[in-house]
Amino acid sequence: xxxxxxxxxxxxxxxxxxxxxxxxxxxxxxxxxxxxxxxxxxxxxxxxxxxxxxxxxxxxxxxxxxxxxxxxxxxxxxxxxxxxxxxxxxxxxxxxxxxxxxxxxxxxxxxxxxxxxxxxxxxxxxxxxxxxxxxxxxxxxxxxxxxxxxxxxxxxxxxxxxxxxxxxxxxxxxxxxxxxxxxxxxxxxxxxxxxxxxxxxxxxxxxxxxxxxxxxxxxxxxxxxxxxxxxxxxxxxxxxxxxxxxxxxxxxxxxxxxxxxxxxxxxxxxxxxxxxxxxxxxxxxxxxxxxxxxxxxxxxxxxxxxxxxxxxxxxxxxxxxxxxxxxxxxxxxxxxxxxxxxxxxxxxxxxxxxxxxxxxxxxxxxxxxxxxxxxxxxxxxxxxxxxxxxxxxxxxxxxxxxxxxxxxxxxxxxxxxxxxxxxxxxxxxxxxxxxxxxxxxxxxxxxxxxxxxxxxxxxxxxxxxxxxxxxxxxxxxxxxxxxxxxxxxxxxxxxxxxxxxxxxxxxxxxxxxxxxxxxxxxxxxxxxxxxxxxxxxxxxxxxxxxxxxxxxxxxxxxxxxxxxxxxxxxxxxxxxxxxxxxxxxxxxxxxxxxxxxxxxxxxxxxxxxxxxxxxxxxxxxxxxxxxxxxxxxxxxxxxxxxxxxxxxxxxxxxxxxxxxxxxxxxxxxxxxxxxxxxxxxxxxxxxxxxxxxxxxxxxxxxxxxxxxxxxxxxxxxxxxxxxxxxxxxxxxxxxxxxxxxxxxxxxxxxxxxxxxxxxxxxxxxxxxxxxxxxxxxxxxxxxxxxxxxxxxxxxxxxxxxxxxxxxxxxxxxxxxxxxxxxxxxxxxxxxxxxxxxxxxxxxxxxxxxxxxxxxxxxxxxxxxxxxxxxxxxxxxxxxxxxxxxxxxxxxxxxxxxxxxxxxxxxxxxxxxxxxxxxxxxxxxxxxxxxxxxxxxxxxxxxxxxxxxxxxxxxxxxxxxxxxxxxxxxxxxxxxxxxxxxxxxx
Length: 985
Fold this sequence. Notes:
elongated; 38 helices; alpha/beta; Rossmann fold; 985 residues; five-stranded mixed β-sheet
């Protein structure tokens, strides 16, 4: 094999990297408005250079092709709306810039590198030039907007800005008033603001950066409304595409931001198509295009760069070494070694993969932009040191990261989100002349010293353990470190020797179960391990319970019950009660916990619980972490209590204090993280679980506030209800609904939202009465007293009682409007008679509310026979059908009479007879549900006034599928509310 060349003699970094002047991170951040305005970095401004440095990933080709289909007027297999859903720093704006260059270049874009593959992906042959509108949330002020002082019209809203860009003043005129008032346009207005002379592409970036400050204005939520209305409208338009990128960094979001983000994302995903722009295996190609200069003629079928022969030889050398040592390196790597080295050259595969394997879950890590920034600094330093130091490195390895360079360390700590690691790096790895790894290399024998094995091994541990990041910390295994540091020029045994020396010397390096990681603290592991083993389990349990009570000390106005063992320990009251489950029982470790909680929710001692919906349980998902952290704290407290008898230096004393502080914090955080499951009754009457996710003390002021906030977002808890809600959910069997029953229903029925305060019920009643939607009444000796309807009612004057009621506006009107005759009922309604016989008819008046109305001056008539003034009809000799008519006060009633010599055929109504007077009347029969109210009005109401009425009801219900437990419980509660026995079989 020919002599292998070091990487820096095979490929050239970009000019600025070769000259040691890598630009800052902003150089890797695309700004759409800068491109539009012509002042972006040349790599982004010039479309030719842009496409040369852009690797067209599979997803990028797909979405770009779909956009072109839509702009060509082809609506099949193409959406009108796309939502970029990649991670922060994951290439969203870069993708938008690519679409911008395609749409503004038109047919000229066919000559750009890789564009033919986009045309193939979209199955189109043309790139239509389009009107392009750009909105960037980071660059648009909520109050002042854009323009006005540069010779252009001032645009105060996103829709005004987009209309201006798409069609100038003519388009802006369409939304001028909407822009002035800050109200999102809709429907035809949106159609008219988008010119139809050619295709239109709307690129909307960094929406959250606009929505967050917008929330503080009187037009909060209008951006959401605009995007929703825009998505609805363009779905029916030809040659119009909108591409939206929502997020700012999740770390920069508050609770309100996260709620808006979720709301926006759900809407955009529902209305359009979510797009993930790059896959993990495409990251290395993106990096190579951006950091090195290549022969752009050497590109494979999929757009990937083809390596020079010297590069392939170096990759083959490393792949052969892997095969020779396959049992000592990670088995996930060995089967595809040659391909892995070629895919990442000139980087060692572990350099690229460590970010995907170990760093990507860090909150501040930026998947594309952050990695590019780090690697740009890395390449620049490696190129300079390679030539100056005459190093023969075939690849840029993980151990070569220049942690001794302050600029590089700063970039690393930005991605880690943890600057306190500065001390650990400088002390143990690099950054000072006394760094332990540097000193160990100087003291080592020549082979190790020349290869800087100690520094490379320590650096590899740092990256493989992602800087020792708290709960996100990863560990570097020995096989991973062998693969990252050893190779054709460094023996595996030398790596393990270096690791042993580092473990003995370093202050912050920790060895745990054959894995390594760096910590921010020096170590007292030996004393700690001894004390930890002696901690008693009962002390651990006691400390955990104490900490849970501290964490949930702030009740935020809720009732609290800690660690109940029986249902009787939980009060049965109409008030939201937070029930904190015992830490010894977690969902993960106690399978029967859900059944126990269900039983205690539905039972109250020996009886059934009325206010089941009032209980909100919070239980741990996993208790192990709390016990472990409590045991850790007890161990450090034991060491602290004995420190006077220990031979500790000042550094160790400081370290002990830090351990104690962190252990207390960890225990508190573990309670926050563990108690992340909220359980309550769902609308189906079954227990449902709400997962709070990864919870920390920074998530809210208290867990109770976080729980309340989450449940409010899910509409499980509300601060207020509307009068309309009460009317919509009015029990049909209650013409008068007591205020106490109204309140109790919100805490008894899971169909109703839970109320934070009974004042919400009072407020709803007060508003409903004041607005005339209901009346507030109480029974007096002569009717309702008080009777408040369509009058101002203060919520503080609303009494919650069994003796105070609300009635509907319809019933209230009956008490204030004078009765008017609206109907006359004639009895009998039908009579069958023989010629010459007589039949007496009676008339009864009803008012507009169906109540009896005294009729006077009745005027009787008939269409045949003889009708006297008393309502007596005498049939004549003629046979046939006749009408009996009665009139009073302009209202008419009728009855039908059939006169025949022979009885009527079967099926006709029989002639009514007048029954003899009886002392007692009894009736039984089955009444269809739709006639219940009529039965009460037409039958029972007549008997109520006569007195002596007794009603016995038998109810039997056999619905298909049976009645659920929740339905049965609701019926029992309703019966109790009516003062009836709740014995339901």
